[in-house]
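Dear Dr. H.,

I hope your travels went smoothly. While you were away I took the liberty of generating a structure for the chain from your last submission, since the lab meeting agenda had it listed for discussion. I wanted you to have the full record in hand beforehand rather than looking at slides cold. The sequence, exactly as received, is reproduced here:
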Amino acid sequence: MKLELGKIYIKDIQFGDKTEVKDSVLFVNKKELEEIAASDDRIKSATIELARPGESIRIAPVKDVIEPRVKVSGPGCIFPGVMGKVKGVGSGRTHALVGAAVVTVGKIVGFQEGIIDMSGETAKYTPFSETNNICVVMEPEEGLETHDYEQAGRMLGLKVATFIGEAARNIEPDEIVTYETKPLLDQIKEFPNLPKVGYVHMLQSQGLLHDTYYYGVDAKQMVPTLMYPTEIMDGAIISGNCVAPCDKVTTFHHLNNPVIEDLFKRHGKDLNFVTVILTNENVFLMDKERSSDMVAKMAEFLGLDGVIITEEGYGNPDTDLMMNCKKVSNAGSKVVLITDEFPGRDGKSQSLADAVPEGDALVSCGQGNIIVNFPKMDKVIGTLEFVETMIGGYEGSLKPDGSIDAELQIIIASTIANGYNKLAARGY
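The corresponding predicted structure, in token form, is as follows:
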């Protein structure tokens, strides 16, 4: 599977008569985007607002973030099984508007939607303070069930991102990066002297608004499977969950998975990046046992020398993380875990809900319990009405002047457990 990713760098966003890119500026037609939003009868109204790096803007409650991309050549479309027919993706050419992002915002569904600050101290904790954000602010119809609202919001974000992505179709990219993974036997033969490395990508699938979708299928309905890493870059995986903001893997993060990016950079040099093993995080012990057994079996079948495992969420998923770690280690692979920590505000509690002796190599993306101060912003996109009921918020978090005291985990992607964030931690 060979994919050319054409990167078109966006330095600014503005409203314009036409949705297009000129001289690294993304112009969007506000009326067109709002008409797309109005096409879903579950959404009462939607407005489009822009937020640029450095502006005194707070965005809340944030539901998802999506990078606009378009499939230029090769089979399938961006977000297959959702925005088009189910067709295997990950080959040909795809163009991405790098530096632009669609951010869906609206009344809270669960308590896990979060905050993005575009400036100030708290902007340092999220990568989305550095993107030019097209914010889709939604107002659901009265009485809409939460699962229907989640689906409507999810589809609206994907529709808007897909529409904007078309602006990149006929543009010569600023940079083209080629990613290639050959069929297994060919891959192993090509670099026989390098260690074979795989990536176990755990998807949130706990149900009750904690779902992720693979080619349009709810991840809790699947068993572990192999996939080409380039499939993810074409939107084979999308977010559909409301987990804690700090480690919520947005659709943007799936499209730009840093573990995959870094493994490709080292591929053929000091390691042989063989495959991605996709698995889920179900709630019942039987399902956890089944999935972790199958993950370990795949690692053994492939003869993987090393495995990197990432999770989404914390608490219950920590069990899946450790079960995968223990069984893959016992199958003969060296394992490195990537996750974040929740040791309490004083840092003295156990960082993870579960642990095994085999989990002796771990990369930490920081801890989410520390209290941070959010200064007052000149503008709020969305509403601060739900701050005190969000994860990380509490009674008294929101101050009369519009400033906020809350745990770090209220910030989108502040400690995200695949490494696309600004924090790390060291053990001594």
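Two observations you may find useful: Residues 156 and 274 are 35 Å apart (CA to CA). The helical segments are 30-38, 146-165, 184-190, 229-233, 251-255, 258-266, 285-302, 316-330.

With kind regards,
E. W.
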